[in-house]
Every structure is written in C-alpha cells, then in structure tokens.
Amino acid sequence: MFGLNTKLTNTVITALTLSITVASAECTREGLLAAAESYVAAQTSGSIDSLKLSATNFTYQLNNKVTDIKTGVLSQPLKIDLNRSTADTIACASYTMLISATGSKPYVISTQIRHRDNDTSSIALIDTIAATTGALFFDAQKTLGYIQKENWDTLDEGQRASRDELKRVGDAYLDMWTDAKAADSIPWGTDCERVEGSALTRPCGATLPHGGSQKPNGNRRYVIDETVGSVDVLCSFDSLGDMPDSHEVRLEGGKVKYVHTVTVLR
Ligand SMILES: *[C@@H]1O[C@H](CO)[C@@H](O)[C@H](O)[C@H]1NC(C)=O
Ligand SMILES: *[C@@H]1O[C@H](CO)[C@@H](O)[C@H](O)[C@H]1NC(C)=O
Ligand SMILES: *[C@@H]1O[C@H](CO)[C@@H](O)[C@H](O)[C@H]1NC(C)=O
35 CA distance to ligand 3 centroid (A)? Predict the structure, then answer.
C-alpha cells in the first residue's frame, strides 16, 4: 500500500510539474495584447512607471537606435486618436500602430514589443519607429482618416494565409527595390489600398518598383499575426537611404488588402 501511494503521489507531482512547465513556456495572445495595452496607456500618460520592463535586460530602440527611454517619445504624453495591436505568439512579440493627430504634436508610431522566454509579464524590448512632421508624406490627420475606415476584423480560418506566406510577402515587398522580380511574386488584391505616410494608392499594385537599387532593405524585425493576416516588418530602408521604416501588410484570402508604411527621413 505504502509503495503504491508513493508511486501515485509521484505521478501526481510529475503531472503538476509538467503542467506548470508547459503553462509558463507558452506565449499567449492575451498576454501579448495586455502588454501592448500597457504600452498604449504609458504613451497616453507619458509615464513608463506602470510598464513591466525587464529588470535585467531591457532595451528601448527609437528609429533604429538604442535610446534612453526617458528621452524618447514614450516619455511624453500623447493624445491617442487610433491604436491597433496584433500578436505573434511564436516570436512572442506584438505590433502596435498609434496615431496622434489632434494633440499638440502629431505622430504616427509603429512599435514592436518583444518578450524573452515566452514571458509576457516582462518586456525585453520596445522597438519604435516614430514619424512626426518632416517624415515621409507625413500628415497624421490624413493617415488617420484612411486607417480609421479599414476593417481589421479577425479572419475566418479559410481566409488566413500561413505564417510562411505572410513572411514571404513581407520580404517580397521590401525586396521590390532590389529584385526586379519581387513585385510580380506578390498576390495583389484587386481592391487593395496602400497608405504610405499619408499618401494613398488604390489599387495598391499600381506603380511598383522593379529593382534598381543595389542595397537591400536590412535589419528586418517581424511580427506576424495569422488571425488578422498581417505581417509588420521594421527595417532600415537602405535601398533608398538609411531610413527607419515600418511596413505592415494585411492579406485577406491570400491577397494583399492593405499596406501601411511609416518612414522617417534622416
Ligand atoms: C513559446 O511559445 C510558443 C507558442 O506557444 C511555442 O511554439 C514555443 O516553442 C515557445 N518557446 C519557448 C522558448 O518556450
Ligand atoms: C539583452 O537584450 C538584447 C536585445 O534584446 C540582446 O541582444 C542581448 O543578447 C541581451 N543580453 C542578455 C545578457 O540577455
Ligand atoms: C485603443 O483602441 C481600443 C480599441 O479600439 C479602444 O477601446 C481604446 O480606448 C484605445 N485606447 C486609447 C488609449 O485610445
């Protein structure tokens, strides 16, 4: 009896340990979106006090440069007119788009947040491209008008592209300036919209680059969310000069529906 009980107890303990290990190793959508929400709240108040930044190794990157978070845009309050976040449970990262059009200083901001060890209770990296007056085609009010009209609802399973396909399309988009064949490898939707800064092109497959530059767009960081068919890539837009840049693409039913770019001129 004693032996059996011990064995049972051991089994129970093993099972408990396993379930705890599995639970803590998972990066959840809820955890990612909660962290993204805490970031939006911090940007609204201009205070990072309530952000759960990693105590051991936190990095703030602004326009592709490691920056003291206290001197960056996150440490000034902004009136947020629009925010939208996506979640990547494989990379354990989120992407948030913020538009502040009606406050004292206009901004359009693209931010990726990364967590280490699948632990969304702690933020390892806030990686921001922040465009304001002087950025490429900058007009926050116009951008807000276009983005507000878009539909970013969750896609039905049958309308979702795979993670690999989303990454491929994001890469092909950024390769158009260096690879003459890239543009034709992208599945353009007939009714897609491209909002570059505040410049609208519809359909978005019109007037595309077909190579010409020798310098690929580098330092690419991805956030991929299959549930809304999106890939966001932060990069250094080296093909046309060293410009901090965000390209976000949404695919519906395998076809490109929206493209957004946020590009800072140096
Ligand atoms: C993080 O979570 C994802 C999704 O649940 C999983 O695929 C991945 O293996 C996990 N990674 C680690 C380092 O635990
Ligand atoms: C600290 O974070 C940076 C950026 O996320 C990473 O490159 C580096 O490896 C980390 N260092 C340690 C000791 O974890
Ligand atoms: C962010 O967007 C959500 C969903 O549209 C909204 O409910 C929330 O109030 C927004 N947050 C801010 C600070 O504007």
Answer: 14
